[in-house]
Structure formats: C-alpha cells, structure tokens
C-alpha cells in the first residue's frame, strides 16, 4: 500500500510539472507544420488564437515562401 501511495504521489507531481495547455508539444507541432507545408521549420513559439492555445510555427516552403502555420496545442490540428 505504501509503494502504491508513493507511486501515485510521484505520478501526480510529475504531471503537475507539465504545461497544462500543451497536450501537443513543440516538436510535434513543428513536425505537423513541416508535413503540411513540405518546408523547413524556422521557429516555433507559444501563442493564443481566438482564446485557444496554439503553436505558431514559421516555415519556409520549398518554393522559398515564408508561411506561419498555427497548430492547436490541444488537438494538433492546423488552423
């Protein structure tokens, strides 16, 4: 019982250290934007769009166009 309680407490403490808003991490958001555009990721930053947490991913496409892709931090869907 003591071991179970210790493991439960450790799990809860570890979960508390994660950002609550980011079910999708920075690297995953970069990969989503890269797949969507076929480009190279230049920058990734946290942002907010319409009251929702998003990753703002700046990419340069194979044709040289710079695009910003918004990736929902909860679902991983692009906007």
Automatic annotation (TrEMBL):
Transmembrane segments: none
Keywords: Signal
Database matches in Pfam families: PepSY
Entries under InterPro entries matching the protein: PepSY
Signal peptide, first to last residue: 1-22
Keyword Lyase found: no
Domain PepSY, chain residue ranges per copy: 25-77
Entry keyword Signal: yes
PROSITE patterns: PROKAR_LIPOPROTEIN
Name the record gives this protein: PepSY domain-containing protein
Originating species: Ramlibacter ginsenosidimutans
């Amino acid at each position: 019982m003591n071991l179970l309680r210790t493991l439960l407490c450790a799990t809860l403490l570890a979960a508390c250290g994660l950002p609550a808003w980011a079910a999708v991490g920075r690297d995953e958001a970069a990969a989503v934007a890269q797949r969507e555009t076929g480009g190279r990721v230049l920058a990734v930053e946290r942002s907010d769009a319409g009251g929702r947490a998003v990753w703002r991913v700046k990419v340069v496409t194979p044709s040289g166009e710079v695009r910003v892709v918004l990736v929902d931090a909860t679902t991983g869907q692009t906007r």
